Amino acid sequence: MDLCGQRIVGLSMNERMTKELVINALNDAYQRAGRPTGVILHSDRGSQYCSNDYQNLINKYGFICSMSRKGNCWDNAPMESFWGKMKCEWLYGNHFKTREEARAAVFEYVEIFYNRQRIHASNGYVTPEKYYNNLNKKSKAA
């Protein structure tokens, strides 16, 4: 999640929480966000985020690593809030027959609903998509 406008920029799904999963999500975010540098990348202290491969990729991209304090879930509150919203607004009550159905539902929530239709108070009650469009218009006008 890009905290500037609450947009989800990187996605990856797998059967388990592995370093490959977070590396895939990071690569997706890096490509979709236009290959930024100097980004502060925050995560918890899970082994997948501490892995050498993940940390090397962060360094390769020129990102600054930020990790939650040990045992403190509040440091990652924006992402934890997102997971809660996705579960309540989209997934609760659904029973998926296949992992592919679940993957499609998550993609639809993020790419169709959350980023493009769901308004956010922190964005002045506009969607992340609209927020970034407005931001781009302002920076081009300046």
From TrEMBL:
Signal peptide boundaries: none
Q: What's an example GO BP annotation here?
A: DNA integration
Task: Pinpoint the Integrase catalytic domain residues.
Answer: 1-135
The source's domain of life comes to Bacteria
Q: Which Pfam families match?
A: rve, rve_2
GO MF terms held by the record: nucleic acid binding
The name on file for this protein is: Integrase core domain protein
| Protein species of origin | Clostridium ljungdahlii
